[in-house]
Write a structure and sequence with these properties.
The protein has about 210 residues and is of the alpha/beta class. Helix content is about 45%, strand content about 15%. α1 links the parallel β1 and β2. The model is unreliable at about 10-15 (pLDDT under 50).
Length: about 210
């Protein structure tokens, strides 16, 4: 598939820019910022916040408010991970990366929907490495209940490897066993994520500076 042309990202020295958002793809985002020479700082929040909506909104608002107080413009690296996400963006006069969630941003909509239709749960490295404590904190310590929750909407687990991934085979296998789902692997490049980041940065750079 031919990669889409990236938007031209104009750097404006007098407007420091920071990307605030989910840490689930922190290695991939940092790699792409360096690769393209985009002068954008990063501020990553915990990758499990989508499980706790109050924490997500509180921490995202706090991060954006801190950047505003320091005179930094912010662009948000999140999908529709909170029902009030658009209100948060409006409140802070900013934009976010386009996409329903981080998996869509990484895979693209068509590939995501094709595997979602198969009943896939998508597992990224950061989640795999913290899987059991993350899941039990959210759903409780009863393995039978946790498996029932996952089996109600998923038929398999797909572990996603990117060029930035470390070795997490054992962690992914343990995660799949914990919820009793078959495990598949998917290798993904960063072309789609790169275009998503470029688009968000370009839209933010094109906004008029706030006084």
């Amino acid at each position: 598939m031919k990669a889409a042309l990236l938007p031209v990202v104009a750097e404006v020295a007098e407007r420091p820019l920071v990307m605030v958002g989910c840490g689930i793809l922190h290695k991939e985002v940092d790699f792409l910022l360096r690769k393209n020479g985009w002068k954008v700082a990063t501020q990553f929040l915990d990758s499990a916040l989508h499980n706790y909506l109050d924490k997500l909104s509180n921490q995202l608002n706090a991060a954006l408010e801190a950047d505003e107080s320091e005179g930094r413009e912010a662009v948000v690296f999140y999908g529709s991970c909170h029902p009030l996400m658009e209100r948060i963006l409006q409140q802070h006069h900013t934009v976010r990366t386009r996409g329903q969630n981080c998996i869509v941003m990484l895979l693209g909509y068509d590939r995501f929907m094709a595997d979602l239709a198969r009943g896939a749960y998508f597992l990224l490295e950061d989640w795999a490495l913290t899987w059991e404590p993350m899941i039990t904190e959210c759903f409780g310590n009863n393995p039978a209940v946790v498996r029932e929750i996952f089996h109600s909407s998923h038929k398999l687990m797909i572990a996603i490897r990117t060029p930035c991934s470390g070795e997490f085979t054992a962690a992914a296998e343990a995660a799949a066993r914990f919820v009793d789902l078959p495990l598949e692997w998917m290798d993904v490049d960063l072309a789609h994520l790169e275009s998503v980041l470029a688009d968000a940065i370009a839209r933010k750079r094109q906004e008029p500076a706030r006084g």
